[in-house]
Amino acid sequence: MKVVKNYLYNAGYQIFLLLVPLITTPYIARVLGPHGVGVNAYTNSIIQYFVLIGSIGINLYGNREVAYHRDDKRKLSQIFWEIELLRIVAIIGACAAFLIFMMLAHKYHVYMLMQSLLIVAAGLDISWFFMGTEDFRTTVMRNTMVKVLSVILIFMFVKSIHDLALYILILSGSQLFGNVTLWPYLRSRVNKVPLRELHIWRHFRPALLLFVPQVATQIYLVLNKTMLGSISGVNSSGFFDNSDKLIKMVLAIVTATGTVMLPRVANTFAKGNIKKVNAYLYSTFDFVTCISIPMFLGLAAIAPKFSTWFFSAKFAGIDQLIMCEAPAILMIAWSNALGTQYLLPTNQTRSYTISVTIGAIVNLVLNIPLIMMWGAVGAAISTVLSEASVTLYQIYVVRKQVSIKNLFSDIWKYIISGLAMFMAVYALNLKLEFNIKTLILEVALGVIIYVIGVCVLQARILKQFRHFIGK
């Protein structure tokens, strides 16, 4: 029941995160335009590399280590301080690397400096500790407060393209403020540990092993925007950023399961209950399949008219990017279940690393020719193919550990229901003039058709739902 409660906390927060961009993104798209959005996306993509250097895999590693030792407060306290001190050392190194980069960079200096607060924020981020102890309420409440504050500040002070630096400062500053506000909650959870008892370097190698897949992941999450900005210009980067942002909004609801299940599966694995670990995987894989298929097909169905209504006429043609990139929702949902919810908590870091490295290589190899031929559309296609390669390798890895037939047993039911929904919503989208009422109508129609399809075909998710209601 705690897993369900944590998922509801996290999913509720992800829905809130979905609503925030629904309010701010159309406003920012109109105020800053493709150029302003593109500059933010391009400079942020560069800063993320330094954030990555300073993080050295701590979020995943720290989450897992806390989950392993959360029942021993003395051990837990020692591990927390060792890991956090290691991160601070790494962040200092990242800051030094950033200063050297700034000496060599020739443009966007002011925007880079505003973005650089994210590097400092990463050093003070201890959300991994609360996730490892399965305390999602604390992080969710803190993040919600910070997001509300940032939205208020955006509407109050960002009025034109000339406020771009201020907009970036609000985003990065709110992230830093939010991370600082988590520290007071540590008082009752960890004890002070004498400095002489701390051995931070023993965590360096295992954290570094998780740093490698994060580097690979970052390549195919951020590299698209960096390469688009360099090859096609910041406007193309702005188009792709908005399309990608919309995909990630929808995806956040699906990947909430990974954040919740990693510490739970890690703790179960530490106790040696492999049967229960596999049972968790079957349930979560079926769940994410059930919700990600209608999400990606539904988003593709409303894209033609929704995109320009949402982002403004300045972003005409972005619907093609959204429709091309939408299948990534399903691919990432599967790789999240197999990678974050199974491979990492069961200590199969090497396999996870190889999978995301394959994705990074595929993305890097395909990006150059596809971006040169089709610009932002090429980046969207490259994203889907790279995510698919990650998923296929992870399926190959777990094929002897779990039943692949069991994982995919009901996928045809979700696909049939999703396609029926897509055809009806897409036809309606092309026929009607788009406004908020039309959006509500199309979403409602899609949900009704999909739910009816799932019920008629008696998909496995219904058994999980009845089991949950029975509790």
UniProtKB/TrEMBL annotation:
Pfam families, alphabetized: Polysacc_synt
RNA-binding keyword on record: no
GO CC annotation, single: plasma membrane
Keyword Transmembrane: yes
Subcellular localization: Cell membrane
Topological relation to the membrane, as annotated: Multi-pass membrane protein
Keywords: Cell membrane, Membrane, Transmembrane, Transmembrane helix
InterPro entries: Poly_Biosynth_Transport, Polysacc_synth
Transmembrane segments: 7-29, 41-62, 83-104, 110-131, 140-158, 164-186, 207-226, 246-267, 279-303, 315-339, 351-371, 377-399, 411-428, 440-462
Primary location group: membrane
Entries under PANTHER family matching the protein: O-ANTIGEN TRANSPORTER-RELATED (PTHR30250:SF11), PST FAMILY PREDICTED COLANIC ACID TRANSPORTER (PTHR30250)
Protein name: PST family polysaccharide transporter
Source organism (scientific name): Loigolactobacillus bifermentans DSM 20003
